[in-house]
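User: Just a sanity check before I run the rest of the batch. Below are the structure tokens for the first item. I only need the designed sequence back.
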């Protein structure tokens, strides 16, 4: 008699192999479909937020805006600052 061939694995290897318990068995099962986390490109540099973010509505600094937080279950509203008045449009003479 010759050597026996190793059994073909039906499932992929998971981090939960060899861990006892129902939870680990459930995780082993779901790992076959979900796989590893999709984290993106390893060589992509980390996101650096801008020092002075701009408003997507008016384009001015967000530090000039007012945020009204409604509380639990209520919406938050952003209030843009008033536009600066142009001095050439009437007003004072001189």
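Assistant: Here's the designed sequence for the first item:
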């Amino acid at each position: 008699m010759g050597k026996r061939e190793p059994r073909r694995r039906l499932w992929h290897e998971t981090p939960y192999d060899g861990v006892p318990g129902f939870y680990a068995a459930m995780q082993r099962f779901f790992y076959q479909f979900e796989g590893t986390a999709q984290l993106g490109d390893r060589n992509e540099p980390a996101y650096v937020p801008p020092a002075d973010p701009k408003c997507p509505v008016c384009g001015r600094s967000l530090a000039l805006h007012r945020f009204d937080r409604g509380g639990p279950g209520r919406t938050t509203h952003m209030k843009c600052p008033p536009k600066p008045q142009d001095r050439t449009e009437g007003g004072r003479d001189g």
